[in-house]
Write a structure and sequence with these properties.
three-stranded antiparallel β-sheet; 234 residues; 8 strands; Multidrug-efflux Transporter Regulator, Chain: A, Domain 2; five-stranded mixed β-sheet
Length: 234
């Protein structure tokens, strides 16, 4: 879904003037189409997450572009898996270990995927602060997988990812999706989850798989209530 300046101002709860200032400063991802600015919802989510910004719950609303059912946070996390003591002593070796951990079909070129992730990191760190990173590329990682995956890796050693807050990373989430729409869905849910104090707490203390899944279910229950509350206000 391509959003206009007015839409983005509402989602970020700022004035349109602020949006234009961010565009001029080159910090907000935007596209010029027929002399008007347009924005990609997935990129806005990544941008807001990397800056730990509070945004309107409306940014998590799923565009009604298809009737195909999409997986939730818990289902994707169960499919991708949770892994502990993942090796690596620097960003490249950590990303290599993460890529090798991903539950991908044999035909997927893992070395190419690693190079893409490293190239993205060279442009801007995917460390979002508080010891968490979400490696991804500017365009969603769309591979020939049968279902979307969220893989959570707890690192054996903290690693400098060049995060905005300067804290080393010990927690890495990876998103792999068969479609752009599925990527957007997962990014939305993960962004929402990382704003939830209970979910973030169990992640930061590297809780058990059962504990993490339990908190993820609570997050999804909260997500279900968001559109219902919005509908009641209308």
């Amino acid at each position: 879904m391509q959003l206009a300046v007015r839409d983005v101002a509402k989602l970020f709860r700022v004035s349109e003037k602020t949006i234009y200032r961010w565009i001029t400063q080159g910090v907000l991802p935007a596209y010029r189409v027929n002399d008007q600015y347009r924005f990609n919802r997935a990129e806005l989510l990544e941008w807001a997450t990397s800056r730990r910004m509070n945004v309107s719950p409306e940014i998590f609303a799923e565009p009604e572009s298809s009737t195909t059912p999409l997986p939730g946070l818990v289902e994707a996390l169960q499919a991708g898996g949770i892994f502990y003591r993942v090796s690596g002593t620097d960003k490249e070796s950590v990303l290599r270990a993460v890529v090798e951990t991903l539950r991908l079909p044999e035909e997927v070129d893992r070395e190419f995927l690693l190079r893409v992730l490293l190239a993205r990191e060279a442009l801007e760190s995917t460390g979002i602060g508080d010891g968490i990173a979400i490696p991804h590329v500017r365009n969603p990682i769309v591979l020939h997988v049968t279902r979307p995956l969220i893989t959570l890796c707890f690192l054996e050693h903290t690693v400098d990812f060049g995060a905005l807050d300067g804290k080393p990373v010990s927690i890495v989430f990876s998103l792999i999706s068969p479609t752009v729409r599925a990527h957007l869905r997962l990014l939305s849910r993960l962004s929402f989850a990382l704003q939830d104090p209970s979910f973030k707490a169990v992640i930061r203390r590297q809780g058990s798989r059962d504990e993490i899944f339990a908190e993820a279910r609570c997050v999804e229950a909260a997500l279900v209530r968001v559109p219902a509350a919005n509908g009641a206000q209308g």
